[in-house]
Design a protein that fits this description.
5-stranded antiparallel beta sheet; 2 domains; alpha+beta
């Protein structure tokens, strides 16, 4: 059975190399094809170039075991540990896909990649295709937007604190602030959320975010912000 599976895996890898060679070299991702045991059988031109530019082996690690590399780093690196588990799940057929975003910084450059692992054959566990796509630009945009959001949130918090103390321009009287209801607080939060979303969208557009990324990421940040605020309100009300 093992020899049969091994033979099927070799045929699947040869089919990928023969049928998709041009496509493998044309895509912007760094791609390695591995067998069911994790051995690297081939890499596309982007994979080979990246290995060479970063002090890798001349053979671009072809012939080395991808899983073993992950195992060496897994005890001290959570990304390597997650990658090991995810790739293994695809190779043994228990998962149809694995993705992971991870940092890959050098002494002079900050970089982020997204790993995507697909099976060579969805019907048989014969190997997988590991692709690493450089997402540094979008990640830097996300980090810049997150910093902007934190700054805006800090300003909003400071403004609300001043209003509660009766110090802000147009703030309500201190005696009224002490009588604020949950409805008043939620109304302020809705106003803050609208203001925050508007500022975030303007920032994303000025920063040249690709279309669609700005609204998708902004929605996730707003959801995170609303969840945190809601949790604080619930704890204060029931504390």
């Amino acid at each position: 059975m093992r020899n049969s599976a091994s033979g099927a895996g070799e045929r699947a890898i040869q089919a990928v190399e023969g049928r998709y060679r041009d496509r493998l070299h044309a895509v912007p991702a760094h791609i390695a094809v591995i067998d069911r045991e994790g051995w690297i059988k081939l890499g596309n031109s982007k994979w080979q170039a990246f290995a060479k530019e970063n002090g890798g082996q001349a053979d671009a690690y072809v012939g080395r075991n991808y899983l073993d590399v992950c195992r060496v780093s897994a005890p001290s690196d959570s990304y390597a540990r997650t990658a090991l588990e995810g790739i293994s799940a695809v190779l043994d057929g228990s998962s149809p896909l694995f993705t992971l975003e991870y940092p890959c910084h050098s002494p002079s450059v900050q970089r982020w990649f997204r790993m995507e692992v697909d099976p060579l054959d969805f019907k048989r566990a014969v190997g997988g295709i590991v692709a690493h796509l450089d997402i540094t630009e979008s990640k830097m945009n996300e980090l810049a937007l997150r910093d902007a959001v934190e700054s805006i949130q800090s300003d909003l918090t400071a403004t609300r604190d001043e209003q509660r103390k009766g110090l802000g321009v147009g703030s309500v009287a201190p005696d009224v602030n002490h009588q604020r209801t949950d409805e008043n607080i939620l109304e302020d939060l809705i106003i803050d959320a609208h203001f925050l979303a508007t500022r975030m969208i303007l920032f994303a557009r000025r920063s040249g975010f690709p279309e669609g990324i700005d609204t998708e990421f902004i929605a996730s940040l707003l959801n995170e912000w609303a969840w945190n605020i809601g949790s604080d309100l619930f704890k204060r009300k029931n504390g």
